[in-house]
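Fold this complex.
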Amino acid sequence: MHHNSLTQCLASFFFAAVVGFLMQRSRFCNTAALRDAMLFKSYRNTKAMLALMIVTTLGFTAFMSVGGGHPIEFEVGINQLVGLFLFGIGMVLAGACTVSTWVKTGEGNIGALWALIFTFVGMFLFSLFWSAYYWPPAPATMSATPNLKGLQFGIANAATLQLKTGIPAFVFGLLQTGVLGGIYYGIVRRERAMARARETAKTETAGVEAATPATVTAVSDAGAA
Amino acid sequence: MEILKKSLDPVVAMVIVGVLDIFLFLVVGAWTVGGGETMITGLLAKAAVGDELHRLPFWVYVFKPSFYYWKMYISLGMLFGAFVGAVLSKEFYWRVPRRMDEWVMITVGGLLMGIGIRLAFICNVSTFFAITPQMNLGGYLAVTGIIAGAWVGSFIYKKVLES
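Structure:
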């Protein structure tokens, strides 16, 4: 399964080169999308993340309705929840996720390279653990060795939904788009409300106006970091 | 070249990435990073210890080291694209973390990311931009996990910065 054609490898490289360029130029960061929303109530990256999720939800589910594309087929398990919980702590501490470690390394950031090296170390440590116990559950679809059945739920995605209900996957995709769009709209409304609150604060304290703009700059700097 | 000096709106950039991601989904699979990083780990380990690596079943059954693995080229492509972008906009320069606690946080963070990816079998990119858009149940579990983790991480991050 880990043998792709040269064309597929080249297509991946070109795709990623454009992505890396766009990420570098836009300073998008998935870590910042979550961290800044939680710590600083700054949503610049969160909106971009939602926009990307909306576009891909529409595209993927449309092609999955007609059996096209290459959806990931693996068994869902409780390990996704636990693994990404650990990942979530790690990415905020490291200040970068899997994308921004590569992008920031490309900009000459030694801290990001260091995070990358220790991601490799973490993966190798995990491989030692896995090899000793064959656990946590590697999905049967990936390891050819099914284990820990109780914590594995089988394959479940838009395509299996279509198979079970007879309703095209794209309909479910539209529902999900609606939810994501709703969150996006909620953020835009919140940003407007915050901007209005700042305006009022500014007019009220016309004499000491320096305070508010200073905080705003600090926040946007943190977002770009 | 003036246009290269201006920062792009991330929403515009990500919509373009989304359209490209749909093409990649048709050619080989949706954008993901963790698997490629694991393969790089495997190739590095193989370069270091040779065939001894096959004593670890993980590198036989789950990730057999191979140069023909598309996800690896995702990592290399992003590194290359970002390097070109940084050089063209004259933003390439060496940045080194100064404080000791930053180094510690980055080291622990990197380890947690590596372990978390392999435990979950997915990374943050596949969570948000591959399997959740495919409406995979694992995506919803993973989004829940990463939000909870980012919340805990933000709490620790704030405590360390304040101390």
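The mean pLDDT of chain B is 92.
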